[in-house]
Amino acid sequence: MDLPVLSCAASSGGDRTAGGCGTVSGALSHLPEPVRIKVQDHPCYSEEAHHYFARMHVAVAPACNIQCNYCDRKYDCANESRPGVASELLTPTQAVRKALAVAAAIPQMAVLGIAGPGDPLANPERTFETFRLLSEKAPDIKLCVSTNGLNLPEHVDEISRHNIGHVTITINCLDPEIGMRIYPWIFWRNRRIRGREAAAILIKQQQRGLAMLAERGILVKVNSVMIPGVNDEHLKEVSRAVKDKGAFLHNVMPLIAEAGHGSHYGIMGQRAPTAAELQTLQDACADNMPMMRHCRQCRADAVGLLGEDRSAEFVLDKLDFMSIDYDLAMSRRRETREAIIRRMEAGREDKRAPRVLTAETDAMTAIVAEQELPRLPLVPASCRPVLMAVATTGQGLINQHFGHAKEFLVYEASPAGVRFVGHRKTDLYCAGTEQRGEEDEEGRSAASILERTIAALSGCEVLLCAKIGYEPWSSLEAAGIQPNGEHAMEIIEDAVLAVYREMAVTGALAPVRQKYA
Questions:
Q1: CA 501 remoteness from chain centre
Q2: What totals of helices (H) and strands (E) does the chain contain, helices first?
Q3: Is it the case that residue 369 has pLDDT exceeding 60?
Q4: How far apart are CA 350 and CA 357, in angstroms?
Q5: What is the pLDDT at residue 184?
Q6: Among residues 396, 431, 506, which one has the least CA distance to residue 462?
Q7: 179 and 173 in contact (C-beta within 8 Å)?
Q8: Residue 62 above 80 pLDDT?
Q9: What is the dihedral of CA 64, 169, 294, 226, to 10 degrees?
Q10: Is 294 exposed, middle or buried (0-12, 13-18, 19+ CB in 10 A)?
Q11: DSSP structure class, residue 47
Q12: What is residue 420's three-state secondary structure?
């Protein structure tokens, strides 16, 4: 099969970092312009971009050179959504074939990453051959690699040669004593090493590799898994250290430790952090460096926008039956990308528009961050912050039915504006069982799914969605979560602040209520 070249370069002449849509909002606004251009259409590195641009992972790296107590790799698995899981392993040639099919079918797919199911740098030949082939066929697609860092220093030059502009390193600690509780062993220089020595070697390699990447101008995101009672408080020190070494973004993720996954932590009953604990730690680390809060802890074969999984549409068996007009696909990719960039820039201009104060808002305290939504009316500084859950399929809009959501984005509104703080996963409520009282394929009734959703939204006071049924509305309201379908198809930040102001006017924001449940 002769694979065509796909190119969707926008305004910068075909460079894989092209885009030219100005500054990005939020925590990345501190970055120099060349770095912002690299990040602005990368859904994993930019909170703004994750509403618009898609990514895909190709599972070409099966082997791993360390063991983590939170990890259990599974192949041929379609029912779990977490790192280390893939439905099929690919050769580099198969991976590129799949990537081009995805690029044709999902024109907003801007990024290809290799994140497993093992460690990409423990499989260097397969990893770099994939990148080489894809660069020849689709030079417009950004390239990323995620690694535990053990073999990173010896591959930094090759990463640079392949124009891999984004690297994610998982760094969970700086103290070998803590590392011993996370990593049972590493495989280093042809021998298995355990205990404190293993953790010390891994930590040294991670820090060395991070500094080498930063020296070459390669963007580094650091992932850290928050493990209550093990490294949770220590991660504040990690955040300071990786910033000093040159990382530009820190992603503190919650431990996934369900017993059914088979990991050591899951079997031993190690608990995961609560949403409030995670946010508190992220906020503390944000004093040191920008935080990534929109991570979905994706599978090793994830495809689509963050929060959606379209990998089943592009398994190898289905590629043979796809009829693709690559010339048309190339044109669609270019047009789609340019339209998204224009839409993002228009949104920023709208947010930067001057605020018109009325006699009513003149009396309010003007405390708002420059990157937030300064043009909207403000509320008194004494008002407490409020968490609001949002059902969305992307594009920064409230555009999803409550019953169709498998996750909710969570925003915090306060007198300082609005900020994205994370997401809450749940189960699909509208699975065909809610009207008949039946159970789904996993034995869950609509009532039990709704109960789990309400628990997942603990601390949220408002739920914004495009539409919601009477039964879930009543249950949410009874739990202290006010459903709201009045802002369907509106920009999320605009709607959140509008609801927040309504709460202020009605006196619902008195500072006596606790910030989080």
A1: 29
A2: 15, 17
A3: no
A4: 16
A5: 95
A6: 506
A7: yes
A8: yes
A9: 80
A10: buried
A11: T
A12: strand
Residue 462 has pLDDT above 60, yes or no: yes
Q: Tokens 């859950």 identify what position?
A: 389
> Contact at 8 Å (CB) between 481 and 468?
no
Task: Establish whether the linkage from the previous residue to 107 is cis, with ω within 30° of 0.
Answer: no
| Element of type H or E holding 451 | helix 446-456
Give the C-alpha separation, 158 to 170, whole Å. Answer: 19
Last residue of some domain: 277, 298, 333? Answer: 333
| Residues contacting residue 456 through CB under 8 Å, at least 6 positions apart | 275, 408, 424, 425, 426
The CATH number that applies at residue 413 is 3.30.420.130
The tally of CA atoms less than 13 A away on the side-chain side of residue 515 is: 11
Question: In the structure, what pLDDT confidence band is assigned to residue 385 with cuts at 50, 70 and 90?
Answer: very high
From CA 258, how far away is CA 163, in angstroms rounded?
37
Give tens-digit pLDDT for 391-410: 998 778 899 999 888 889 99
Separation in Å, CA 301 to CA 57, 102, 115, 311: 5, 12, 8, 6
Pair (110, 165) in one structural domain: yes
Of 165, 171, 174, which Cα lies nearest the Cα of 145? Answer: 165
Query: Which of 364-373, 427-436, 490-499 is the most confident on average?
Result: 490-499
Q: Verify that 65 and 203 share a domain, yes or no.
A: yes
Q: How far apart are CA 329 and CA 324, in angstroms?
A: 8
User: What number of CA atoms fall less than 13 Å from residue 466's CA on the CB side?
Assistant: 16
Say yes or no to pLDDT of 375 above 50.
no
pLDDT in tens, 442-451: 556 788 889 9
Q: Kindly state the tokens that stand for 334.
A: 């270019």
CB-based contact 59:89 (threshold 8 Å): yes
**Residue 111 or residue 40, greater confidence:** 111
Residue 348 lies inside a defined structural domain of this protein: no
Domain that holds residue 459: 355-505
